[in-house]
Write a structure and sequence with these properties.
Protein-Tyrosine Phosphatase, Chain A, 185 residues, alpha/beta, 7 helices
Length: 185
């Protein structure tokens, strides 16, 4: 016996609601990130402070060997937070030669620029299903971005977000202060 069109519409509606609940539950689960979930440090080439959280990798400045290791780990996207004047090598060409996508989004330190952080957010969202390496010189700015991301996008308290940010790279008090100022804390 073939189901009626009405029963098919009801079944379709139930499936859509069920899928929506699962997706929302997944988003809420992401909001409960703890510092313990940040894995590492591991060494990629000359950089020894590579950390990992879900599909995001955080590091100081990788060299060619570090980029090759990133590629071997499945990284498909590199977001460089350094100003081009901060380094002498052609990172973009090195990354693209390995088949990865490269973005330069300079974070010039404190105070943080909302437009710059929005651009990073947009790239992370655009590449949400890919492994992403976000790096700066030492991983301080990276940890600062991550802390603001967790507090603003995942409703984490500023102190909890800073704990995760420290695990991902924040070592400077000035970066912690910039995070607090950015978040209005």
């Amino acid at each position: 016996m073939k189901p009626s069109p009405r029963k098919l519409r009801v079944l379709r509606a139930v499936l859509i609601v069920t899928a929506s609940v699962w997706l929302c539950a997944g988003a809420l689960a992401e909001a409960t990130v703890s510092p313990d979930e940040v894995e590492g440090p591991v060494t990629w080439g000359s950089v020894s402070n590579v950390m990992h959280l879900h599909h995001l990798w955080f590091a100081g400045q990788p060299d060619q060997a570090g980029m090759e290791k990133a590629k071997a780990e499945g990284v498909a996207v590199v977001i460089n937070l350094r100003d081009p004047s901060e380094h002498a090598w052609d990172e973009k060409s090195a990354v693209e030669a390995l088949g990865m996508t490269y973005y330069s989004v300079p974070v010039r330190g404190a105070p943080f620029d909302k437009a710059v952080f929005d651009e990073i957010e947009s790239l992370v969202k655009q590449h949400h299903s890919e492994e992403i390496l976000v790096h700066c010189a030492s991983s301080n700015r990276v940890g600062g971005w991550l802390a603001t991301h967790l507090a603003a996008r995942h409703e984490m308290s500023v102190d909890e977000a800073l704990a995760v940010g420290r695990r991902a790279g924040i070592t400077k008090v000035s970066i912690e202060q910039a995070v607090r100022a950015f978040l209005g804390d």
